[in-house]
Amino acid sequence: MIRQTFLFATIMALVTPVASALEEPSWELLETVGPVELRRYAPSIEARTALASNGESSGGFQRLAGYIFGGNESGEKIAMTAPVAETLEGDNPVMSFTMPSAYDMTQLPEPNSSDITLHETPERIVAALSFSGWATSGKVARYQRQLLATLDDNGISAKSAPILHQYNPPWTPPFMRRNEVVVEVRLD
């Protein structure tokens, strides 16, 4: 029991500071609708890469990580942020990293890979439903249905396809993981 407690405490000490030290996009809570948060996100910049298929996460992550770890025209290292975002529907799935807020488009180095593009994302209103554990396809689909049903039941229109946000490094224990299914919405 002492060994398990020590292992748990060590994992907590290693994981918690890493995840909480990452910059996240700036947003304000507008209201909650059941378990769903309606948020206003500030403008941001995203590095994006196309995925071969929905769920092809590792290749996309490696390309984006390569860019921020120096795979760019100046060899500059760019701080990792959270979440890693991945589209959940459509014929052209995309993964993205939000760039640190200290950068504007003129300050970000050009990616070495033509598979990575930089995009300015305007202010937007997003509905988010959070969950913990591993973001398996079945669990993500369940939360996606719950998010869309909650919006529909409350007369809120989705403006985009759902996106999966994952906030933690892969070694984070499942019970400590933070994930969200989000969709841009139109509030009338």
TrEMBL record:
Signal peptide location: 1-21
Keyword tags: Signal
InterPro entries: Reg_factor_effector_dom_sf, SOUL_heme-bd
Keyword Kinase in record: no
Gene3D superfamilies, alphabetized: Regulatory factor, effector binding domain
Full protein name: Heme-binding protein
